[in-house]
Automatic annotation (TrEMBL):
Keyword Cell cycle: yes
Keywords assigned: Cell cycle, Cell division, Cyclin
The protein's name: G2/mitotic-specific cyclin-B3
Domain Cyclin-like: 260-344, 357-437
PANTHER family xrefs: CYCLINS
Length: 482
């Protein structure tokens, strides 16, 4: 008690700025030891913030107080003070919270909550109470000689009635030799699932496309079918209803001009086609829920492309780039405010199934040529400007675009396509008539971007391929001749 009193007096003198020259080296060592512990345990006592303690400035503070010796410095650097006093820390809940982050870099204890790699903390299949954790820790320490550190911690922490339950929450891998996760049980379960998993059966004439891609990890052949099955379920969440009756300042032609301009932006910035399709979907969803003035339509379109680019591009264009293509008609603040509104409208949910992704999947499974796929892309991209088609499911309109492209090249709808698209040809006939009419009509001067784009050699000049003729009863002429 007297020793502690003298130390406190010496510490008080040091805090007041007095010199330590009158003290013996042993006394200085004892004071340094005590002072270092108090810095670590109670930094607020010396007006030391937690960020200063965690940033390693403890040594600098102690040196400024002129009480630091090389041995103490070595101890603090190696984290030995933290380890030696750790048993006290786990009995003090507030202190453990204060020091937990600082201990990670110094070899101290880490607070872990339900780490499955720690057998004293985790139970399989149910959550364990604090009493169960304490009991299990004590049983493990008695039954295993290799887990002696756990036993010591259990015995010492049990002496403290106020925090014995919390001590089980501060256990590190250093204290448990057998801290490696035992995967034998999980491995057996995985093997059982593989054995019991039913081998998919395919109808006659249908190729198991994913089985042929097992050597290509980029095709994720084990999950591709389930992924697009999930897309089929998810696309129903993002169905768009016709909204022009709520938009008093907007018409079908105005929407078509906006989409045409967005295609031009996609070409100018050389963005992915997925970015364009997502942007158009974002525009429709936003217009379905919010009234937009005619003067703000271009702002909505530019912001939608910006958000879609950040979702799908490796290097999306900057805000200033979009302000420039809008001829500085809007301010930066307006653009960012519109971005927030757009994201709130979709509840920050940008994982929307797109018709373009379905089309690529269908074409790959049927091993369609690149020219045929490009023709289907031209048909599908033209459909983006058609307001009457916004209610059609993305998977269905993608299948219809591919079917029309096949018919324009005198090819048939195969069992493989019917299996992977889940649409029969008869379900798509009415839709392909509509799509054929879209590419048959000569676009106005404000809607030339898509046709000019797909009239280029790089796109196989597919826009120049003549569409099918439609009979008087509204059916495709080739279908009637049969």
């Amino acid at each position: 008690m007297a020793r502690r009193h003298s130390q406190n007096q010496a510490i008080a003198e040091i805090n007041r700025g007095k010199s330590c020259r009158g003290l013996s080296s042993q006394k200085i060592s004892e004071i340094a030891d005590f002072f270092a512990e108090r810095i670590i345990h109670n930094p607020e006592e010396f007006n030391i913030k937690n960020d200063i303690l965690t940033s390693g400035k403890t040594l600098q503070i102690a040196r400024n107080k002129r009480i630091m010796e090389p041995t103490i410095t070595t101890k603090l650097r190696s984290g030995r003070y933290l380890q030696e006093t750790n048993e006290k820390l786990i009995c003090n809940k507030d202190a453990s919270k204060r020091v937990a982050d600082a201990l990670l870099e110094n070899g101290g204890k880490k607070r872990i909550l339900g780490d499955i790699t720690n057998r004293t903390l985790a139970t399989r299949g149910k959550s364990a109470s604090k009493k169960d954790l304490k009991l299990k820790a004590s049983q493990t320490s008695v039954g295993s000689e290799t887990e002696q550190p756990v036993k010591e911690i259990s015995l010492k922490s049990s002496k403290s009635s106020s925090s014995s339950e919390d001590s089980a929450m501060y256990v590190t891998a250093l204290e448990i030799n057998d801290s490696v996760m035992d995967i034998s049980i999980i491995k057996e379960e995985i093997e059982d699932i593989d054995k019991n998993q039913a081998v998919p059966t395919f109808p006659e004439g249908v190729e198991d496309f994913d089985a042929t891609c097992k050597e290509d990890p980029n095709s994720v052949p084990n999950y591709a079918f389930d992924i697009f099955k999930y897309y089929r379920e998810r696309e129903k969440v993002f169905t768009v209803k016709k909204y022009l009756d709520k938009q008093k300042e907007m018409t079908k032609s105005m929407r078509a001009i906006l989409v045409d301009w967005m295609v031009e932006v996609q070409e100018s910035f050389e963005l992915n086609h997925e970015t364009l399709y997502l942007a158009v979907k974002l525009v429709d969803i936003h217009l379905m829920h919010n009234f937009v003035a005619k003067s703000k339509l271009q702002l909505i379109g530019a912001t939608a492309v910006f958000v879609a680019a950040k979702f799908d591009e490796r290097m999306p264009p900057l805000v200033d780039d979009f302000l420039y293509i809008c001829d500085d008609s809007y301010t930066r603040a307006e653009f960012l405010e519109t971005e927030i509104k757009l994201l709130k409208t979709v509840n920050f949910n940008l994982g929307i199934p797109l018709s373009y992704r379905f089309l690529r999947r269908y074409a790959r499974c049927a091993r369609i040529s690149m020219e045929m796929l490009t023709l289907a892309r031209f048909i599908l991209e033209t459909a983006l400007m058609d307001y009457e088609l916004i209610e059609v499911l993305d998977s269905k309109i993608a299948a219809a675009a591919l079917l029309l492209a096949l018919k324009m090249k005198d090819m048939k709808w195969t069992p493989t396509l019917e299996y992977y698209t889940e649409y029969k040809e008869s379900e798509l006939l009415e839709l392909i008539v509509h799509l054929n009419n879209n590419i048959s009509v000569t676009p106005t001067k404000h809607l030339q971007t898509i046709r000019v784009k797909y009239s280029h050699d790089i796109f196989f000049n597919v826009a120049l391929i003549p569409p099918l003729k439609i009979s008087k009863n509204g059916q495709l002429e080739r279908e009637v001749s049969k």
